[in-house]
Hints:
The chain is α/β, with parallel strands linked by helices and 254 residues long.
Amino acid sequence: MIAIVAAMHEELAALLALMPDEQRIPFAGRDFWVGHFRGQPIVAVLSRIGKVAAATTATVLLERFGAEAIVFTGVAGGLAPGVEVGDVVVATKLLQHDLDASPIFPKYEVPLTGHARFAADTAISDALAAAAVEVLRDPVALLGPSVAEDFGLTAPKVHRGLLVSGDRFVSTAAESDALRSALPDALAVEMEGAAVAQVCHDFGVPFAAVRTISDRADDEAHGDFTRFVSAVASRYSLALVDAWLATLPADAAT
Length: 254
Ligand code: SAH
């Protein structure tokens, strides 16, 4: 069974609305929703915000629900030039930007793993990126003309590369400048992905992350955040998960 982890409540709600038979299984203070989405067996859950919450969620999914793959959907702040609000980032690698056990270990390296950058599963990420290209082809059709216009979504793009995570909502230009100079290849910043990647690495289970850019991690990052999540990001993630699951053979996700 595949696990879909959403960072925000609105995204999970959009997903649950299309699960005809979901069963709520409360565990560790979270609600795990087990059922089918477009015929595929899935477990959907809200990760809650931050690396520890996300790691706990991932561990429970793997250990208690036997998840065979975890896909994280959510929003993120754009860092690299050209990664704009409304674009989608599919992670190839994930790193914790606030982890630093130097000089004992190299900066960013997760002690005793030998890794700073954890790879996302290539096959799932390729499929998600292909689904994202389809979903973003016509933002007006998906979101309606007024939402597309309000957020200036004319030709949203799909990017693939490094996603960085840390326990901080990055909302000043000074902070995002610092991240850009420390990690010039980072496309976007969020608060959960790299933690889930680390847990999945330990368990040897494939992981992928797809994030809609909600802000530029600068002084305006708080802006229309909530409205963006419900009007844009949750529709993108639903359409994306839908398009991706539709490509899987019926028994591949069991
Ligand atoms: N303060 C925000 C919510 C913070 S949590 C508010 O005004 O409601 C933001 C969530 O979105 C986290 O789950 C994180 O993964 C992601 N996110 C989006 N933009 C981010 C940014 N600029 N920095 C860090 N995380 C971001």
